[in-house]
Design goal:
single chain, 25% helix, 4 helices, five-stranded antiparallel beta sheet, alpha+beta, Sulfite Oxidase, Chain A, domain 2
Length: 171
């Protein structure tokens, strides 16, 4: 016979396991090559303690397109991707900042105050085309520089990391 305490403990464990599996199921699993891994202070995961995304998973989210000039390109460019704020909401980010890291381990800090509507996107298309590693891809943090003069600063430019492949949400 199981005691009431044991039954309660088993029920709690079962509920936690179910919640974890539902959480992972809601996010889905990458079917292609993982191009972005998010870890740290997040509540929604699909690979252990991380949330992993392939190109198709990002493309399935609501997209945003910015036409803007950058200090790294010639003339106006069109960038399409997902709002950083939407991505942080999807993974249940609870931190104060994130460490965004590139393929070559270059890293920048992006404060939670930048995770806003009309803020940066994680771009996966430039002028309608996927970005290769040689062309600053496959992911590039892009702010709407032309739409907001506050984004035309060295601080913001320094946060515009390209070849992004990892985000760690930090307290």
């Amino acid at each position: 016979m199981l005691t009431t305490t044991t039954k309660t403990a088993l029920s709690t464990i079962a509920a936690l396991c179910l919640a974890a599996s539902v959480q992972a199921a809601d996010l889905g699993q990458p079917e292609g090559e993982t191009i972005l891994t998010i870890s740290g202070e997040i509540t929604t995961t699909n690979a252990g303690a991380t949330a992993t995304f392939d190109q198709a998973m990002l493309e399935a989210m609501d997209t945003v397109t910015y036409e803007t000039e950058t200090i790294w390109t010639e003339g106006p460019q069109t960038f399409t991707g997902v709002l950083l704020s939407d991505l942080m909401e999807l993974v249940g980010a609870t931190g104060d900042s994130l460490a965004a890291t590139a393929i070559n381990d270059y890293a920048v800090k992006i404060p939670a105050t930048d995770w806003v509507d009309g803020g940066p996107i994680i771009a996966y298309l430039q002028n309608g085309n996927p970005m290769s590693v040689r062309d600053k891809g496959p992911l590039w943090v892009i702010y709407p520089y032309d739409d907001n003069p506050d984004y035309q600063s060295e601080v913001t430019y320094s946060r515009s990391i390209w070849q992004l492949d990892r985000i760690t949400v930090e307290k």
